[in-house]
Write a structure and sequence with these properties.
Elements (H helix, E strand, L loop, with lengths): L2 H45 L2 H18 L5 H21 L4 H4 L5 H10 L1 H34 L8
Length: 159
C-alpha cells in the first residue's frame, strides 16, 4: 500500500476504533465485558454505523491535509463537530451507567435526561458523520479537479 494512503487509513482506523474503545471501556466498567457485548448488540443498528463513518471522515481529512497545503478550517471544524456529536451519542448509549461513575446528586438526573435523547443523538451523529464525509470528499474532488486542470495540456497552437 502506498505511503500516501497508508497513513490516512491508519489514522481513520484508529479514530473509529478509538471511539469504539471509549464505548466498550465505559460499558465494560459499568456492566462487565459480557454486558458490554450485549449492550453493543442492542445498540448496533444505530451505534455501529458511527464508528466506521467517523473513521472514514478522519482518514479522508488526513489524506486531504497531506495533499493540500492550504488551511481547511471549515472542514476541520466540521470533523471536530461530528466527533463531538459522535462522542456525545456514544456516551448517551451508556447514560444509565453515569451514576456509577459520578455518584453525585445531579448525576442521576443528567443520566436520565441524556438517555431520553439517546436515539435522536445517535441519528444526529450518523447524519453529522455523513455530512462530514461528503464535505471532505467534495473538497478532495475539487482539489483533484484543480490539479487536473493545471496538468492538462492546453490546445495545441499552430496545428
Amino acid at each position: 500500500m502506498s505511503r500516501i494512503l497508508g497513513r490516512p487509513l491508519l489514522i481513520g482506523v484508529l479514530a473509529g476504533g478509538g471511539l469504539l474503545a471509549v464505548y466498550m471501556t465505559v460499558v465494560t466498567v459499568g456492566q462487565g465485558f459480557d454486558g458490554a457485548l450485549a449492550q453493543l448488540r442492542n445498540d448496533a443498528p444505530l451505534l455501529l454505523p458511527i464508528f466506521p463513518l467517523f473513521g472514514t471522515q478522519v482518514g479522508l481529512l488526513a489524506h486531504l491535509k497531506a495533499r493540500v497545503a492550504q488551511p481547511m478550517a471549515a472542514i476541520s471544524a466540521a470533523t471536530g463537530a461530528s466527533g463531538g456529536v459522535s462522542g456525545t451519542a456514544v456516551v448517551a448509549c451508556c447514560a444509565h451507567l453515569i451514576p456509577t461513575f459520578l455518584p453525585a446528586v445531579g448525576a442521576s438526573a443528567f443520566a436520565t435526561a441524556l438517555a431520553a435523547v439517546r436515539t435522536p443523538l445517535l441519528l444526529a451523529a450518523i447524519l453529522a458523520n455523513l455530512i462530514g464525509v461528503s464535505l471532505v470528499v467534495r473538497a478532495l474532488v475539487r482539489w483533484r479537479g484543480q490539479i487536473a486542470s493545471v496538468e492538462s495540456p492546453g490546445p495545441e497552437v499552430g496545428t
